[in-house]
Amino acid sequence: MTRSVTSVSVGAEPGPGRSPFVGADVCQAAGFTLLPGGHGPVFDEPMWDFTAVAGLPAQLHQAARRLTFTGIVNPAWQLLAKELLFALLAPSHPAVAVLPRALRTPLNLRSARYRLAELTRWLTWLSDHGVTTLGQVTEDHARGYLAHRRTAGDGAERGPATRKAAVTAVLDLCDYAELFTTDRYPPGFRPWGGAAPHAIAETPPVGPNKTPPVDPSVLQPMLAAALYLIEELGPHAVDLARQLHDDAQLRGRLPHPRRMPTDAVTAVLTRHVRDRVPLPLLADHHIAVRLAGGWAPDDPLLPIAWDLLARQAGALRFRLEWVRRLRGQLEATLARTGADKPYCRNAAPVSRADGHGQVAWSLPLHPHEAEVVVRLVRTAAILVITTLTGMRASEVMELTGESRRVEHLAPGRVRYRLASRVIKGRPLGGTDDEWVVIEPVHTAAGVAAGLLDSPGGDTKLFNLLGFTGLYASFRTWVDSPAGQRLGLAPIPDGPVNPRMLRRTLAIELAYRPGGVLATKIHLKHVSVATTEGYVSRPGGAQARLLAEVNEQETERNHALMLAEFRNFQNGIMPAGPGASELTSFFSSVEAELAGHDPGSPKTVANDRQILNLLSRRAGVLHLGTANYCWFTDPAKALCLKLAGTPSATTPLAGMCDSARCPQATHHPCHRDVWADTATTTKTLIASLGTTRRVEKTRLQAEHDRALTVLAGIDAATRPADPTERG
């Protein structure tokens, strides 16, 4: 298809000339590849449909793949909007490349849709205020529209993103004015004195990540329930999904005979009696339809799902006249077999989540209830994968039936991977990437693949576009009698979304060992998988997650250093072998602070400035289960001496003996751990017989050590007279 390109002189008034994009293939100009046999939009069409474009991310829902211009009533402005969107999608087009203020990087379809939506609002607002041509637009119109978009209908203040979008819509028509052939702003018009959009919209500077983590009281039971559904119910749900799929396939093949297959129906009823199989029950909402159609409420055949019975006889439907003709035989069969829901009869037993015995993995289900169970297990897989990998929603949605990878490194050593694509910040279609994951994540992806109608291939595993609804249904089910029957802990109310789960993982890894991610998931395993993913693909998405974790660790160490310094100033001292060295360091910092002239501009007056003095020591802080490790000198590290690795650059937490290591300190936050250890060892000693002297001696030593540490913490943390520290 040929494209006609006409030049538009800079600063000229719009005239009757043809648009430079008339007849242009939008996909060709934007560099989009089409699926085999697909057709893309032409510039002149009132709606640009990009559904045939290859490589669109799964996160881009169907409505977002279409740009509709019919919301703009003014025909001249409708053409102007097309010209602007074409320029944003194809900035290298000859008519666009010469514009001094035009963007040089093409927009993706999602951003282009948002841009068109805001432009439509702006032009509609102008029409509502009596403006018929852009030549009538003034500074007051621009400011009025921004004020209009600043406040929502309920009076609430909208965020800076909305304000910036409104400003951008106004300024786009300035930046691309030379391109428009039907209407333009007055010559030289640029509202807000030419300020940048972010300044006009009062967008705050980019700061730390403000996405909140999931509340621990929500996270713990949520992840525990998701893991339980995957591990205990997952294999059964896969079988159920296959049965539902097979039944659906059967419905598509069965005939709809006008004559009753008497022999086949009789054979089916005979089998039900012989094998003592209950007749299938109808769902309540279908019973209500029958009652509305004239069925008697006391009819014993009212609740029977006749169509399910007909399919066993090779027919699609069970006609009402067949029921009348076979009533005697049907009632006799019902009296001997009874009736029950058709799916999950005699379900296999599973262990309850709370450890209190076993129960059937499911009670009998109607077809729509069986579909709900399959959907719940799929949601559980989403939660497990998102929570334990930190993958973004767009990356989870790119997982397919063939995403799982297994790498056998050595006997007993296996590395699990998930292959997906990174969408954020990448060209159309994203870039291939792999995540190193732990086994529960790999299992969850396998269960999700088994739930597909056609396992394997490039079929997407998930659709997270309705995540809020999916999670709400999951939580409701866990809190319902169905979830409680399985021993699942109720999930408290609280927001959960993929961004929050990614943020939670970063914080939990950074703040371990105090994390409460899940009792049965070892954070060390998740951390190792994340680190392996970084090593495997240094430029991949897992490297970005690890960078977020490192940022959180830095923030954590700074917060802990500042808190301990404040404790020191209040007379609450550290305990343990490394206490004197840490106290000396704090004393030197305090002396440096005291040496500043209060009237000097260099006065240290806030936490940020204090942290500058503490930051070097914060960089060597490592968290132990029951101590802080100040890894300032590897030669002094007891764990490295015990392991015979004196040249290591990080401590070996698993070999830590903080009661003897000169770089370990104990603080009030560690007291409960040592108290629990003392109580546990005392109980064990009392339970041992007189013949187990060696074990008693070992436990007594541990008990004495715990008591010594407790005494040290109590003595050091008892606030003293501040003057005594001098």
Structural description of this entry:
The protein is mainly α. Helix content is 48%, strand content 7%. It contains 26 helices and twelve strands. It has helices at 26-30, 75-89, 94-97, 109-128, 139-150, 160-175, 197-200, 216-253, 262-275, 284-292, 306-312, 320-325, 327-337, 367-389, 393-396, 439-450, 467-479, 481-485, 498-511, 523-536, 541-569, 579-594, 607-618, 638-643, 671-687, 693-716, and strands at residues 47-49, 66-68, 279-280, 339-340, 349-351, 358-360, 404-410, 413-422, 431-437, 621-623, 628-630, 664-665. It has a three-stranded antiparallel sheet with strand order 7-8-9. A three-stranded antiparallel sheet has the order 10-11-12, with no helix packed on it. The chain has a two-stranded antiparallel sheet with strand order 1-2. Strand 8 (413-422) and strand 9 form a beta hairpin. Helix 8 (216-253) crosses helix 14 and helix 21 packs across helix 23 (607-618). The protein is flat.
State the gist of this model:
The chain has 26 helices and twelve strands. It is mainly α and 726 residues long. The longest helix is centred in the N-terminal third of the chain and has 38 residues, at 216-253.
Describe the protein's topology.
Layout: H1 26-30, E1 47-49, E2 66-68, H2 75-89, H3 94-97, H4 109-128, H5 139-150, H6 160-175, H7 197-200, H8 216-253, H9 262-275, E3 279-280, H10 284-292, H11 306-312, H12 320-325, H13 327-337, E4 339-340, E5 349-351, E6 358-360, H14 367-389, H15 393-396, E7 404-410, E8 413-422, E9 431-437, H16 439-450, H17 467-479, H18 481-485, H19 498-511, H20 523-536, H21 541-569, H22 579-594, H23 607-618, E10 621-623, E11 628-630, H24 638-643, E12 664-665, H25 671-687, H26 693-716
Parallel strand pairs: 3-4
Antiparallel strand pairs: 1-2, 5-6, 7-8, 8-9, 10-11, 11-12
